[in-house]
């Protein structure tokens, strides 16, 4: 009795390079989808920008006269790096809300049913929010310049300040992505985001020197990531020691990403 030999060849499994290429393509597709949503709903961008602009104007003209700082250019030059750092962190708030909304509406379930990289849902959202965050920072920089802010340390450090702000915002975005996947409810995410972001940003050197705070509070304010990154941004903008602050900022950002990116991926798999 003759043995039947298979006529078809098994399809070879894609290599690591091809899988990475597919994941990047899928992430870009998801990012494009999110950017189209921003484009079709301009109010999302408007409200993301208008709040930090209001902060700039309030602190510049309402509180600025009562806060004294020993920096070149006065309080407006002290304030601007802090506002930009705070706004980059607050911009991440939209990530948690957007992911929670997509979970509630079943969009994430539809993603799961499609032949696409699972990582694309998270990385695509992060890429789109990176662009939104960059736009917010640049608009804030323009408004701050209009009300008196000036760089005192040259063009290259100025670019470095913007890059550091966006990198810090991306680190905080990874935290927001994790919260969005874990909490899953849009309203609950909206409430909880204020609880943990406000103390971190206001109990820092963003708006007032840490030395003006009570002694017991200075210990926390001086050693938390928001102060470390904003102090480095201020040094880049106005001039000052960069070495230690640069390393500390890099460690803070890398540490946040190293912890919360894997947590966000794990939470997404459990949605």
What is the strand and helix layout of this fold?
Blueprint: H1 16-40, H2 42-63, H3 75-91, H4 93-104, H5 107-113, H6 119-146, H7 155-183, H8 186-202, H9 215-222, H10 225-238, H11 243-269
Helix pairs in contact: 1-6, 2-3, 2-6, 3-6, 3-7, 3-10, 4-7, 4-8, 6-7, 7-8, 7-10, 7-11, 10-11
Descriptive notes:
- This protein has 271 residues and is mainly α.
- The protein has one domain.
- The chain is built from 11 helices and no strands.
- Helix 2 runs antiparallel to helix 3, helix 3 runs parallel beside helix 7 and helix 4 runs antiparallel to helix 8.
- The longest helix has 29 residues.
Task: Describe this structure in a few short sentences.
The chain contains eleven helices and no strands. It is mostly helical. It has one domain (17-269).
Over all CA atoms, what is the radius of gyration?
A: 22 Å
What is the count of structural domains?
1
**What class, by secondary structure content?**
mainly alpha
Mean pLDDT value: 85
- The overall strand count is 0
* Helical segment count: 11
Termini gap: 54 Å
Give the biggest beta sheet: none
**Strand coverage percent:** under 5%
| Helicity level | over 70%
Indicate the low-confidence ranges by residue numbers.
1-10
**Quaternary assembly:** single chain
Instruction: Indicate the overall shape.
Output: elongated
Q: What order do the helices and strands follow?
A: HHHHHHHHHHH
